[in-house]
Amino acid sequence: MARLGYSRQHTKMAGKENFRKGVSDYLKKHKFGNTITLDLLASLEPYFKMEHPEQNLTFIMVTWTNQMGYPLLTVLKEADTYLITQSRFLLDPKAVPLRDTEYE
Length: 104
Hints:
Largest sheet: 2 strands, antiparallel
Strand order of the largest sheet: 1-2
Number of helices: 4
Helix content: 40-55%
Mean pLDDT: 81
Radius of gyration: 17 Å
Shape: extended
Structural class: alpha+beta
Low-confidence stretches: none
Protein backbone atom coordinates (compact mmCIF):
# COMPACT_ATOMS: atom_id res chain seq x y z
CA MET A 1 0.00 0.00 0.00
CA ALA A 2 1.03 3.63 -0.38
CA ARG A 3 3.32 5.19 2.16
CA LEU A 4 1.95 6.35 5.49
CA GLY A 5 2.36 10.07 4.81
CA TYR A 6 0.15 9.66 1.77
CA SER A 7 -2.54 8.03 3.90
CA ARG A 8 -2.44 10.86 6.43
CA GLN A 9 -2.67 13.46 3.67
CA HIS A 10 -5.77 11.91 2.12
CA THR A 11 -7.41 11.29 5.51
CA LYS A 12 -7.14 15.00 6.28
CA MET A 13 -8.50 15.95 2.86
CA ALA A 14 -11.50 13.59 2.66
CA GLY A 15 -12.16 12.61 6.27
CA LYS A 16 -11.48 9.43 8.21
CA GLU A 17 -14.70 7.63 7.30
CA ASN A 18 -14.40 8.33 3.57
CA PHE A 19 -10.77 7.24 3.65
CA ARG A 20 -11.71 4.02 5.47
CA LYS A 21 -14.39 3.24 2.89
CA GLY A 22 -12.02 3.88 -0.01
CA VAL A 23 -9.29 1.68 1.46
CA SER A 24 -11.85 -1.04 2.20
CA ASP A 25 -13.00 -0.98 -1.44
CA TYR A 26 -9.37 -1.07 -2.58
CA LEU A 27 -8.51 -4.08 -0.40
CA LYS A 28 -11.61 -6.02 -1.46
CA LYS A 29 -11.03 -5.36 -5.14
CA HIS A 30 -7.33 -6.21 -5.15
CA LYS A 31 -6.99 -8.96 -2.54
CA PHE A 32 -4.40 -11.52 -3.58
CA GLY A 33 -3.27 -9.26 -6.43
CA ASN A 34 -0.69 -6.64 -7.28
CA THR A 35 -1.51 -2.97 -7.52
CA ILE A 36 -0.06 0.40 -8.37
CA THR A 37 -0.70 3.81 -6.83
CA LEU A 38 -3.40 4.59 -9.40
CA ASP A 39 -5.43 1.58 -8.19
CA LEU A 40 -5.57 3.03 -4.69
CA LEU A 41 -6.43 6.48 -6.02
CA ALA A 42 -9.25 5.02 -8.14
CA SER A 43 -10.80 3.52 -4.99
CA LEU A 44 -10.40 6.72 -2.97
CA GLU A 45 -11.53 9.17 -5.66
CA PRO A 46 -15.34 8.66 -5.36
CA TYR A 47 -15.23 9.26 -1.61
CA PHE A 48 -12.98 12.28 -2.02
CA LYS A 49 -15.45 13.73 -4.56
CA MET A 50 -18.17 13.64 -1.89
CA GLU A 51 -16.27 16.29 0.07
CA HIS A 52 -14.57 18.09 -2.84
CA PRO A 53 -16.62 17.59 -6.05
CA GLU A 54 -14.67 20.23 -7.96
CA GLN A 55 -11.24 18.69 -7.31
CA ASN A 56 -9.37 15.71 -8.75
CA LEU A 57 -7.69 13.59 -6.07
CA THR A 58 -5.63 11.61 -8.58
CA PHE A 59 -4.10 14.78 -10.04
CA ILE A 60 -3.37 16.20 -6.59
CA MET A 61 -1.79 13.06 -5.17
CA VAL A 62 0.18 11.96 -8.25
CA THR A 63 1.91 15.34 -8.33
CA TRP A 64 2.78 14.84 -4.67
CA THR A 65 3.80 11.15 -4.69
CA ASN A 66 5.89 11.32 -7.86
CA GLN A 67 8.18 14.10 -6.73
CA MET A 68 11.57 13.07 -5.48
CA GLY A 69 12.88 14.32 -2.15
CA TYR A 70 11.33 16.37 0.62
CA PRO A 71 10.51 20.08 0.58
CA LEU A 72 13.12 22.18 2.30
CA LEU A 73 12.21 25.73 3.34
CA THR A 74 14.96 28.26 3.91
CA VAL A 75 14.10 31.44 5.81
CA LEU A 76 16.40 34.45 5.72
CA LYS A 77 15.76 37.54 7.82
CA GLU A 78 16.82 40.82 6.30
CA ALA A 79 16.09 43.81 8.52
CA ASP A 80 12.35 43.64 9.20
CA THR A 81 11.45 41.30 6.29
CA TYR A 82 11.80 37.59 5.64
CA LEU A 83 12.75 35.82 2.43
CA ILE A 84 11.41 32.26 2.18
CA THR A 85 12.56 29.88 -0.54
CA GLN A 86 11.74 26.24 -1.18
CA SER A 87 14.00 23.57 -2.63
CA ARG A 88 14.30 19.80 -2.52
CA PHE A 89 16.16 18.05 0.24
CA LEU A 90 17.90 14.95 -1.11
CA LEU A 91 20.16 12.63 0.82
CA ASP A 92 22.23 12.42 -2.37
CA PRO A 93 22.39 15.99 -3.76
CA LYS A 94 23.64 14.61 -7.11
CA ALA A 95 20.48 12.53 -7.63
CA VAL A 96 18.48 13.37 -10.73
CA PRO A 97 14.72 12.77 -10.88
CA LEU A 98 13.68 10.31 -13.59
CA ARG A 99 10.48 12.25 -14.13
CA ASP A 100 9.05 15.39 -12.68
CA THR A 101 5.58 16.80 -12.26
CA GLU A 102 4.38 20.28 -13.10
CA TYR A 103 4.23 21.23 -9.40
CA GLU A 104 7.35 21.69 -7.36
